[in-house]
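Hi all, long-time lurker, first post. I run a small reading group and we've been trying to get comfortable going from sequence to structure in the token notation. Rather than ask abstract questions, I figured I'd post a concrete chain and ask someone more experienced to write out its structure so we can walk through it together at our next meeting. Sequence below, copied exactly:
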Amino acid sequence: MSTPVDVEDYRRASDLIAAGLAVLSTRQGPHDLLVTVDSYLDVSYDPPTMLVALYGMGRAAEAAEEAGHLCLNVLAEDQQHLADRFGTPGAPLQGMLAGLEVSRTADGDAILPGALAHFALRVEQAVDAATHRLLIGPVVETGEGRPGPGPAIRFAGERRALR
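-- Answer (accepted) --
Happy to help. Here is the structure in token form:
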């Protein structure tokens, strides 16, 4: 029988996986809910399908699953302030988008200005995995943002730039 992996050892090692930062947007009743994520992936090109992992006990996972849709906004390297803004736990629902001129997906989810790309998903599956909820579904809309900047990256617990 193998020895369980130490949680702190795992955390340090997994921080060495470079991850692109994104902001997930969805609706909770009349309110926009946004949260910074770095655990997402494209599952399939045919049909276009993505997966987003959210903390299972958080309101973002519940809201996105309840709404049945979400928008994943892939952040540019000069948008770290947005990752910080929407990565703050317990942020109030009202006023999350104050000062931002957003556009909307067909389902009404926020598309952040200046993002590298956005992917609108319909949530078709929700799977529990440890402390997280994996939301999986087809991409129903996509768009590219401004050309030029690199992606916002997290590596070793810090923001980084690709060079």
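A couple of things your group might point at:
The chain has a mean pLDDT of 90.
The two ends are 43 Å apart (CA to CA).
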